[in-house]
Structure to design on (490 residues):
């Protein structure tokens, strides 16, 4: 029987990869991912895990080595952050295009410049359309569970796509949380050994990553798009199976206190726990706010989001990234297209906060709730389509 | 490929576009990229095989006589063979189509 113990989330991620019996790890250290790969390196060096740990000279090489390893049929794991994710950017597309079920712990951090080692979602939002399945986590337990589920999802014959498990830099990666680590026996029962469809092996040679002529490229990319779109069914099945075996429930879209109100926030990652605290605080004052948390970000869970949005009329999309010249933040724009396509009559607002590690306390979310409910000054011209919370002006 | 590539539907492709047939690049004839072709002067050729060695496409082969020539289905006319030929036995001759 597994027990709950206090453990640093990064260490728990490495332990989860060990429990998944990964066979190859190729990674390059970068703050705030460092503890994950350091601990994995230790586990492998101590002989506690029968895996190859490939030391590489960059993240570009790390992801390239992961592609090669995964192509041979090895269960492959890596982790990165921020600039590291940018450096492996081109190989992210190759991993998904070649349908290699690599699992990556993406420890979300801001991008330079200015140089920042702290958390936000700039890195993952720049990688959001790389064809990877993407899960977001609110706490350490979710990170551990998602890492184990990620292998099962990625390696399913109907999926065969790489999966990123997103956890916020520092606010998740470096905190010590009470986590129930599953036992090896339990994980073995949940996660069968990887049975690859194709492998690079001299006994049965195949070509992987060949040239795609104009006559074939469209069909190839369409097949890949269909694979990620259809992966949602498998993701739900894996989440259900996990919930049944381990007793912790997972769904692509989770809601908190949405039944009692027409006002909801939508956000990703660890800030959702602060939003929940804000919601509880508002409740004590007789005010009702709900939260829609997207655990699954890619493929985008439109159906589940629409059913969560039914009957809501004030929705704040909260993001930890600057739009970079876009009309709004990336999550807002996607939700806006879902709202439009489904004919939902919703007042949709976009708030940006928590950039480069700036703390966002529950009171901040309560203030957003008040802003959302205050009468709009129509005469005042807005500087932007979004509001940056806490910016000094 | 079992059929010409423009006839494949998206769901007929292997996962990740893996190619299971070995050496099927042979089916893709690239010779029509060429604007000039190598021509051997067998008076000068010493049968050393440098052209064969350097050809980046493996388009050059040795005839029964021991002299070399290019398979024009694949030769792209890059001219590396002519450049590397020590006795200058290979001339690149422009082609018109």
């Amino acid at each position: 029987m597994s027990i709950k113990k206090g453990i640093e989330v990064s260490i728990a991620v490495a332990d989860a990869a060990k429990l998944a019996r990964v066979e190859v790890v190729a990674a390059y250290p970068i703050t705030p991912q460092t503890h994950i790969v350091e601990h994995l390196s230790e586990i492998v060096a101590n002989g506690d895990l029968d895996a190859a740990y490939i030391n590489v000279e960059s993240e570009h090489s790390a992801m390239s080595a992961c592609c090669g390893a995964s192509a041979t049929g090895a269960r492959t794991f890596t982790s990165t952050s921020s600039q590291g994710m940018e450096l492996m950017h081109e190989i992210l597309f190759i991993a998904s295009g070649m349908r290699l079920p690599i699992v990556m712990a993406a420890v979300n951090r801001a991008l330079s410049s200015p140089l920042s080692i702290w958390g936000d979602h700039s890195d993952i939002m720049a990688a959001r359309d790389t064809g990877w399945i993407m899960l977001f986590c609110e706490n350490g337990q979710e990170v551990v569970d998602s890492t184990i589920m990620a292998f099962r999802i990625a390696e399913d014959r109907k999926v065969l796509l790489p999966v990123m498990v997103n956890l916020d830099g520092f606010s998740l990666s470096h905190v010590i949380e009470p986590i129930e680590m599953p036992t090896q026996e339990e994980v073995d029962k949940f996660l069968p050994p990887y049975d690859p469809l194709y492998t690079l092996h001299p006994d049965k040679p195949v070509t992987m990553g060949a040239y795609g002529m104009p006559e074939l490229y469209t069909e190839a990319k369409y097949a890949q798009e269909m694979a990620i779109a259809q992966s949602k069914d498998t993701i739900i099945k894996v989440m259900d199976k996990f919930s049944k075996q381990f007793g912790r429930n997972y769904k692509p879209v989770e809601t908190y206190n949405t039944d009692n109100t027409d006002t909801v926030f939508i956000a990703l990652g660890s800030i959702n726990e602060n939003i929940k605290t804000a919601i509880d605080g508002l409740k004590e004052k007789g005010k009702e706010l709900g939260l829609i948390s997207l655990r699954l970000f890619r493929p985008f869970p439109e159906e589940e989001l629409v059913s969560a949005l039914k009957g809501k009329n004030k929705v704040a999309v909260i993001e930890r990234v600057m739009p970079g010249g876009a009309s709004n933040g990336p999550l807002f724009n996607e939700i806006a297209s879902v709202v439009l396509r489904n004919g939902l009559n919703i007042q949709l607002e976009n708030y940006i906060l928590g950039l480069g590690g700036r703390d966002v306390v529950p009171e901040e979310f309560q203030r957003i709730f008040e802003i959302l409910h205050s009468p709009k000054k129509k005469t005042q011209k807005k500087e932007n389509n979004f509001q940056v919370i806490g910016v000094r002006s | 490929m079992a059929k010409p590539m423009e006839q494949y539907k998206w769901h007929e492709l292997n996962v990740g576009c893996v190619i299971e047939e070995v050496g099927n690049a042979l089916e893709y004839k690239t010779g029509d990229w060429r604007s000039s072709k190598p021509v051997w002067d067998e008076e000068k050729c010493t049968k050393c095989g440098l052209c064969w060695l350097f050809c980046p496409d493996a388009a050059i082969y040795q005839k029964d006589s021991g002299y070399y020539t290019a398979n024009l289905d694949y030769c792209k006319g890059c001219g590396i063979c002519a450049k590397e030929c020590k006795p200058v036995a290979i001339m690149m001759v422009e082609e018109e189509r």
